[in-house]
Design a protein that fits this description.
- The chain has one domain (3-232).
- The longest helix has 30 residues, at 3-32.
- By secondary structure, the protein is mainly alpha-helical.
- Strand 1 (155-158) and strand 2 (162-165) form a beta hairpin.
- Helices cover 61% and strands 3% of the residues.
- The chain is globular, with a radius of gyration of 18 Å.
- It has helices at 3-32, 45-73, 76-100, 104-119, 128-131, 141-147, 166-177, 187-203, 216-232; strands at 155-158, 162-165.
């Protein structure tokens, strides 16, 4: 496939995503009208809980069993390498969004990490950069919109993708554009890598999810919102409440 074909394919993907987002917003708006006293941060809770239940069913029937099998048969060093590989690809996104946010230093660090881990780290399988203390903050377009002053909007649970907000959902198309897997020409290879990424990420949360207490929906919602606000403010709102060894909630746990 030539460059024009790849660009067209990504454009179709983004267009479809925007249409889906619009439909979700309309449905969510209808659902919110049924709430007498909606949560200010989650005015579409009725709709969101239904989507959450759908996602949980898919996870219970398919994704979690696959993750458990993957975790059982895959040695930990291999899992670490797989996670490093996909994390390294995300450095491209961080470079672009750091520049858009006026953070050239972080962009330089991300670029350096990508070069070091891609070369010395053999395609990113080894996180050499962290070992030599070349570290920075991950950035995406949802964070960029926040830095630009765009409000986060209501909390929104997306089918299959999980926790989000209106602002973060708006930023997803550019995140797709800037993730290298989007440009893999072979469909089978791209789908296989995407599936591996999802399963590996889900496996990394098998132990952490046991720490969830109370209403699972509310816990994940509150954790997501707190973490995203921490990321947008670069930690200015206080310590990261999920940075301990005991629990490290990742807002992308069930996304992408």
């Amino acid at each position: 496939m030539n460059g024009k074909g790849r660009h067209s394919g990504v454009s179709v993907l983004v267009t479809k995503w925007l249409v889906v987002t619009l439909v979700l917003m309309i449905l969510a708006g209808c659902a919110s009208q049924q709430n007498v006293e909606p949560n200010p941060e989650d005015p579409w809770e009725g709709f969101n809980r239904r989507v959450f239940a759908f996602n949980e069913a898919i996870d219970r029937v398919a994704l979690k069993p696959l993750a458990q099998g993957y975790d059982a048969i895959t040695p930990q060093p291999v899992q670490t390498g797989v996670g490093n590989f996909f994390s390294n690809l995300g450095e491209v996104r961080t470079v672009l969004n750091s520049l858009l946010q006026g953070k050239p230093n972080n962009a330089g660090v991300a670029a350096g990490r990508f070069v070091i881990n891609t070369t010395i780290g053999i395609g990113g399988l080894w996180d050499v950069a962290t070992g030599i203390e070349v570290t920075g903050r991950e950035e995406d377009f949802g964070q960029t919109l926040g830095v630009w002053g765009v409000g986060e909007g209501p909390y929104l649970v997306l089918p299959l993708l999980g926790p989000s907000t209106v602002r973060d959902t708006t930023g997803l198309p550019l995140d797709m554009y800037t993730y290298p897997l989007t440009y893999v020409e072979d469909d089978e290879v791209r789908y296989a890598l995407t599936a591996l990424r999802m399963i590996d990420r889900r496996a990394s949360f098998l132990e952490q999810e046991e720490l969830i207490r109370g209403d699972r929906y509310s816990f994940i919602r509150d954790a997501y919102l707190q973490r995203r606000r921490f990321e947008v403010s670069d930690g200015e709102l206080g310590e990261d409440p999920f940075a301990s060894d005991e629990f490290d909630f990742d807002d992308d746990a069930f996304a992408e």
